[in-house]
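Fold it.
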Amino acid sequence: MRAIDAGLLVCHECHQLSRQDASAGKQFCSRCGGLLHARRPNSLTRTWALLLTAAILYIPANLLPIMTVNSLGKGQSDTIMSGVVELVNYGMLPIAAVVFVASILVPTFKLVGITLLLYSVQRHQSMSARQRLIMFRFIEWIGRWSMLDIFVIAILVAVVNFGSLASIEPGMGAAAFASVVILTMLAALTFDPRLIWDNTKLDDDHE
């Protein structure tokens, strides 16, 4: 049984359980005073908007240079994928693998995973609540590795600065990639996981 079926509301701020008052237009948490909702308002719409924006920005994030290395008056711009190829050519396979996973696979998994989760919840697809919950937790877990490239570029820009001899500058691809990471993180936060359990009867039939 869901909390909403028992007439209980969970505060989004402090997670206090409160008894639902059907006669009240607006209901506030008795502990922190936050506005109570059975489900986050427009959760699916907001998550879709953030996800689609991230998907659009994911294209320039991979096509535009993520950083430019200037050495002895010559500059070389690299996208995420060309940077991975350069690392492979230099024999740095472990580093290339880490960058590829963190910068290519992880954002792709997040975009595809959130899309499947939203579609299954919105269209009541035949996916169990347990499968949706595992997918949601996996999306939250892998999100922490998405900013690896941005951290590396920030460190390199701060450390490698020898005037006209050598310097590293971030490119537009880095800004687009950081935007994709932030938007997918916000999409995961905006999604109300309680929606996973709203078609309980359908899930029970498949278990």
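The chain has two domains: 1-38, 41-205.
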